[in-house]
């Protein structure tokens, strides 16, 4: 069977890059905080109707703060602000009113348990409930309209791939039929990967979905960073087919669901959900969810922009010094592997000679390396050579914090020698990282050194938080000058 590619990804608006993630995050965050504002504003409106004043004080003020906190939890518990729900007016209304009842039940219970009942007007509570409920109901069509506009423009389209075994084609056909019947148009299948593509005729999938090759092809596929989810249509007990899939996909950031037609004990503790109306087991999860991705991207944009403004004079002086120190370009570019194994060109201040023998060598720098210029030794020792990577961060190719990206040749060398090495690529590479602030900088000339670095990188991916990023940034300032930086 010839390998077939698709037209997937030709519309940049449908890709889950920084632009698409920002749009989704903005939509969810905007609606969520507007709804919380509605709860607080309705309390003020009720106060004006009951007491002819917009000033809320004392017990009423405390109950309003409680209501906003409970609302934040309740809205999330009923999944009011999930993407598919935002497009359905009646589902939104039902879930919003369910949450509202829980919010006011909490307000009433806490109010009377705290013996504030005599200072709380029941008419004020009634006005508050009616105003909040009415506003939430009336704004649902507007939210659905905004959702449909963004969906129509392609910003909310989610792309899935299907993994299947050659002996489960009948189950695959049934699943595809069901998908087409019940899934919204914003949930699309980009293509299908099978364990033995050479045994399957293209005609079996013609006019439906492209057959893109094997699981190995997916790992190398140029569009895999744009995939929002994957579905495995295979038997859970068929470990001979499933385990290789999981092993290979550990280097890619993707949510993988297994159709739960056959569940054995090993999968019993996994999260169970529904997809296309069928029960699925979540067997693999992305390190960061959409909200976390948006938060991390905002962090990168703000920090890199501020750093570039503050460090512009320093970077100009370094650039001039490089031109005066040795012949050659100011910047050094090299291909590195980034998020989901995609390649990008990393940008650094040149710290080595521009000779032909140096340019043809990709070996890591060593102590007293003859390729390094006098100025280059200072730049590397003080980490000033890394400053141009702020432009990589601003472009979205890197993050301020993340696993350090290695040269392509070094990746190829260690991928077969260090377990879970490629799993580092499930999160964007960074200028600094958890491994670096824990002393794991410089040359990784042994498998043991690289294994230790990978261990720290995977810990970071599994435990990401804004606090951890800020902690790493602070620790990085303390260790900018490091004995292993050469």
Output the keywords.
486 residues, alpha/beta, Rossmann fold, 11 strands, globular, disordered N terminus
Structure description:
By secondary structure, the protein is an alpha/beta fold. It folds into three domains: 18-152, no CATH class; 157-286, Rossmann fold (3-Layer(aba) Sandwich), CATH 3.40.50; 291-478, no CATH class. 50% of the residues lie in helices and 12% in strands. It has 16 helices and eleven strands. Strands 3-2-1-4-5-7-6 form a seven-stranded mixed sheet. A two-stranded antiparallel sheet has the order 8-9. A two-stranded parallel ribbon has the order 10-11. The longest helix is centred in the middle third of the chain and has 36 residues, at 290-325. It is globular. The model is unreliable at 1-5 and 9-16 (pLDDT under 50).
